[in-house]
Amino acid sequence: MQISVVGTGYVGLVAGVCFADVGHKVICVDKDSGKIEALKKGQIPIYEPGLQDILKSAEERIQFTTDLTSAVNQSDVVFIAVGTPETADGSADLGPTFAVLEQICKAAQAPKYIVLKSTVPVGTNTRAKAFVAEHGAHAHEIINNPEFLKEGAAIDDFLRPDRVVIGCESHEAKNIMEKIYAPFISEGRPLLFMSNTSAELTKYAANSFLSVKISFANELAALADKVGANIDEVRAGFTSDSRINKAFFYPGVGYGGSCFPKDVQALIHTAHEHGCTMNIVEAADQVNDKQKIVLYQKVKERFKDLNGMTFALWGLAFKPRTDDVREAPAGYLIEKLTQDGAKVVAYDPVASETAKEAFPSPFEIANDPIAACQGADALLIATEWNEFRNPDYKALTAALKNPVIFDGRNCLEVHDVQRAGIEYFCIGKQSLFQGPA
Ligand SMILES: NC(=O)c1ccc[n+]([C@@H]2O[C@H](COP(=O)([O-])OP(=O)(O)OC[C@H]3O[C@@H](n4cnc5c(N)ncnc54)[C@H](O)[C@@H]3O)[C@@H](O)[C@H]2O)c1
To answer: Candidates 2.30.40.10, 3.40.50.720, 3.40.30.50, 3.20.20.140; correct CATH number of 203-290?
Structure first.
């Protein structure tokens, strides 16, 4: 099976490498020649654990090119995995997707199966079908195959998916997708065939529901703080109910990343276009907007005037095990603190460079977590990297001007912090810390 994947970002590259890993022949296409040149040399342009190793083991079956025409004509199936970012009105920007569709129509000398792997709003398949019918010289078939991988665990998610969702119409398309995904579902994982429209909506349903869970945890945590409850105890208590899945009920500084915020907006936008409401999802979005500045508010409440102060910040990526900083809560935090005249010295194991390029507000980068704290008025934690979980408290308190920590991810151990005599602010279990122990 010869496959092309257009777009070698977090999704396209992982998909291409994993397809090659299970034995398919893959051509990865990107318009970014710098990325393609790096990939040809075996260099991975993103941080994703395990990707480098799997690329090495699959290198005989994978090629990288900027030449879409040649890739399309060598392939039976062309996956499109370009970005679908949010536009000003909340809808998804389908410009890159349709630009690729147009290129495929121009390039293809025979009918192709074109698979929309990007997250695309409900109705895109209908538009795409009309588009290829108008612009293509051949009867291409549009298939929807939304991706559910999580950055930081992308390889495992792709190789061992909870399910694979495929929207298609013909038996031929179903057969070809079954062949492509057979190696990934051999352990009885479901390959779910449905209409293209259902496949599109399934992806938005999944991301929006996860966003609702996070916002619910955040609102519950705020209430726990007010009434003197401990959110960890509450979570353990209510998620033990077999009807409630334990995952994703962790409070923090809000969800970010390149998917949840934009997919929530896109679902709301689609609902409005069809005269429907998405009240629960809209509420999750509003709660998240407030949550992004919750740590800043705690800092402000504690120190009042932040002008001239210096804050250490651990974590810039939107979550651990990735260098992706799109919509990362750390970016909002830095913006608020610097607007108040404070300086931020940040440390992140892998995302410093991407954050430096992406965040609009200035901040300094430290080479290690303790160096970031040197002379700082307090430490803030925005990403729960494992290396932050058991800090050297002696070195930490020696470095900080004031032993104060604002932990936006509840990643420190209560007893350790208390023993170190640190003033600690966290999310949803504040009653345990009424000042230094
Ligand atoms: N990142 C995730 O965790 C994740 C998970 C599931 C689904 N998705 C969805 O997958 C899609 C891709 O997301 P991503 O994070 O991989 O995006 P990304 O921004 O990391 O990568 C997109 C790539 O497409 C390339 N590209 C854009 N236009 C092109 C063109 N005309 N020709 C060739 N290449 C082109 C870009 O250069 C870039 O390398 C989005 O719709 C996203 O919502 C993302």
So the answer is: 3.40.50.720
